[in-house]
Structure formats: C-alpha cells, structure tokens
Amino acid sequence: MTTQQVNRALFDDVMVPNYNPQQMVPVRGAGSRVWDQDNNEYIDFAGGIAVNALGHCHPELVAVLKEQADTLWHLSNVFTNEPALRLAKKLTDATFADKVFFCNSGAEANEAAFKLVRKYSYDNFGAEKNEIISFKQGFHGRTLFTVSVGGQPKYREGFEPAPGAIEHAEFNNLDSLKALISDKTCGVVLEPTQGEGGVIPGNAEFLKGVRELCDEHNALLVFDEVQTGVGRTGHLYAYMESGVVPDVLTTAKSLGGGFPIGAMLCSDKVAPSLGFGTHGSTYGGNPLACAVAEKVLDIINTPEVLSGVATRNAIFNEELNKLNERFGIFKEVRGSGLLIGAELIEAWHGKAGEFLAAAREQGLMMLVAGPNVLRFAPSLIIPEADIREGMAKLADAIAKVVETAKA
C-alpha cells in the first residue's frame, strides 16, 4: 500500500481553488510559534486571522478539550447540555445581552442576526419594514446573505441575484447614513472596527449617532464583533469602550480560541422573534465547542489579560513607528488593542502581499487587510520578546522588498 505524500502540491490536486495558501505547510504550534513540514520556525502575528486568542495549544484549552472529548461530543438540539448553558450564562452575565444563540462561525452568527432583525420588524411593525443598512468596505461573512450585507461588491460578483432591501452607507459618515435610513429600515449593521476593510476604527461620535438614528427609526443596531470581540481590543467586547450598546451582537473567532464556535447575543426585547422552529444549527452549541469556549472566556475576561492587550499594543506601535522612521512606507498605523493595521503609502499601494510573502521567508506569519494594509492580530498573550523578535523579522522583510524594488 502506497503512502500518500501530503504537501502543498496535493492542495492543487484535491481542493477547490477558492484559496491560495502559502507554499509552506504548518504542522505544529506552541504559544506564538509555528513549525512547518521542514521544521522551519515562524513567529505568529496572524493568530489564524484573529482566532487563536491564546496562541497555539494553550495547555488549559488542551486539557478541557480532552476532558470533554472523553465525556460528550454532540447532541441534537432536541436536548441542551451543561457546557452550552454555562457558557451562555457567562456571556449574558458579562455583556448587555439576555439571550444567546450558538452556531459554528461568524458568518452563521451574522446570518442569525440579520434574520432576527427582519423577523423582529415583521412581528412588530409589518412586512414593509425590511431594509438593512450596512457600510461600504464592511465584511460580515461569505454566505449569500452575509456577503450581500457586506460592503465589498467583489465578494458578491458572480453570485447574483443577491438578497434585496440592503443599502450601504459610508463608514464614519453619519450624513451618509442619515440619507439612507428611514422608517422602512429594520436594522443597521456595523463592525466597531472594520477588519477586512482595512482596520478602520469607528469614531465615538459616529457610533453614538448611529445608535440615535436607530432609536429614532425603530431600527435594531447590530454590532458585528466577530473580529473585535473576546478581548481583541483590550475590552471583552469593543462596544464596552464606545459606550454604545447594540441590540444584537455577533461573536466568533477568538471565542473558541481556535475551536469552531459562533454566537449571537441579543436583548430580551428582540429574542422572542426567533421562536421555536424559526432558526437552527445542527452543530451549534455542541458540548465540545462550548466547553473550550467557556475556558477561553474564563481566561481572557480577566484584568490581567485585558490590560496586557494595551501593553502589547504599545509595543507594536512603538516597533511599527521605528520601522516607518527607517523605511517610510506607512501612511498610518491604526486600530485598537491587538487588531492593528499599517496602511502603506500610495507608492506601495497594491503591494501588501509582497510584504506578506517576504515576511514568511523571514519566519514571520502576518496578514493583510486588502491590498494596501498590513494587518496584525496575534495572540492576546503573545510574549513581549516575541513581538520584538517578530518585528526584527519584519524589518528584514521590508528591507528585502524595498531593495528588490530599487533593483
């Protein structure tokens, strides 16, 4: 019997080509370090796209995963289970929310949220109040509904006709929202900081104004905190810093620390509209995912971890500013906590991927947010020494790209 060789080339043979993964294949991780098939070592500034909030193979997460794996993995939603109930109670105790719906991903959490805002308006105001407003450059998932609410047309192209009654305003532009919102609007959806759109924080006046407009027009406010949630900004959820409380909040990514889980949180005012039989998820709320997420929440929702995010943010900014003094390639460094974007100057627009590839060659894993922004979303507990070592690798990568461009 021949053993199948597993390498990057096999991807092209057996996988749908919607992804184009890096040439190296990671096989092992520990903390903020990753090793590939050739035992090359990398520092991880990507965090699985803001997912591995406690790094790779955190011992407490591994322990609770193994314990639950020996106990109970899955039940249908004909039954509830203890880990799901404990996690839901901790989420409602820690946030504005009264009720929780569990699913498997951020897109599913957003799908539930968008269905809820329409159903709530249908129940309380009638079928004509069905319009959803979101924001250009926003990103809310890859289902047909969520990609339609998202404000990046490239993700909808070829999949039309898309769901209707969806409008897109300009982010951080309250006048743009005022021009679109009406008594037909059932919900306004936004990311407190746009992630995929370029790591663009919503300013405080804008967020407050959106809340006021929603109240004025009896529309629900949905905060997509799939990327900003569970400590990413230095607060358990970003809405807590803004002082603006949404009606519905979605969370995933960091919630499972790498294990797939998503959740939609909402108030008692709106929860009854998702009554028995209106929505569901076969795997949502399974004991295995909820047990891991409960431990993630226990670890992250502490003063030590949350305050440590601000400390690490300061180091990232310090190091990125040093790089900019040396190379002069960044127009702006922005973001909050450990969701940081470094926008390239116009001369380097469209070339973020070149820096990503060069960083990988130097032993650094990072992200982009579109073609013009380098993005960093590492573990919330990444050692400070790893940040500085990773930045030294990024310096070498930038030097190589700049040198090549001059040649």
From TrEMBL:
The pathway noted for it is: Amino-acid biosynthesis; L-arginine biosynthesis; N(2)-acetyl-L-ornithine from L-glutamate: step 4/4
Q: How does it assemble?
A: Homodimer.
List cofactor names only.
pyridoxal 5'-phosphate
What's a Gene Ontology MF term here? Answer: N2-acetyl-L-ornithine:2-oxoglutarate 5-aminotransferase activity
Q: How is the cofactor bound?
A: Binds 1 pyridoxal phosphate per subunit.
Q: Which residues form the signal peptide?
A: none
Additional record remark: May also have succinyldiaminopimelate aminotransferase activity, thus carrying out the corresponding step in lysine biosynthesis.
Could you tell me where this protein is found in the cell?
Answer: Cytoplasm
The molecule here is called Acetylornithine aminotransferase
- Binding of N(2)-acetyl-L-ornithine, residues: 142, 281
Q: State the superkingdom.
A: Bacteria
This enzyme's EC code(s): 2.6.1.11
Name the principal localization, coarsely classed.
cytoplasm
Supply the gene name: argD
Q: Which InterPro entries does this chain map to?
A: Ac/SucOrn_transaminase_bac (IPR017652), AcOrn/SuccOrn_fam (IPR004636), Aminotrans_3 (IPR005814), Aminotrans_3_PPA_site (IPR049704), Class-III_PLP-dep_AT (IPR050103), PyrdxlP-dep_Trfase (IPR015424), PyrdxlP-dep_Trfase_major (IPR015421), PyrdxlP-dep_Trfase_small (IPR015422)
**Which EC class heads this enzyme's classification?**
transferase
Modified positions (N6-(pyridoxal phosphate)lysine) in chain numbering: 253
The record's keywords, sorted A to Z, are: Amino-acid biosynthesis, Aminotransferase, Arginine biosynthesis, Cytoplasm, Pyridoxal phosphate, Transferase
Q: Which residues make up the binding site for pyridoxal 5'-phosphate? A: 106-107, 139, 224-227, 282
Swiss-Prot/TrEMBL GO biological process terms: L-arginine biosynthetic process
The UniProt catalytic activity note for this protein reads:
N(2)-acetyl-L-ornithine + 2-oxoglutarate = N-acetyl-L-glutamate 5-semialdehyde + L-glutamate
Biological source species: Oceanospirillum linum
Q: Which GO terms describe its cellular component?
A: cytoplasm
Q: Which family does it belong to?
A: Belongs to the class-III pyridoxal-phosphate-dependent aminotransferase family. ArgD subfamily.
UniProt xrefs under SUPFAM superfamilies: PLP-dependent transferases
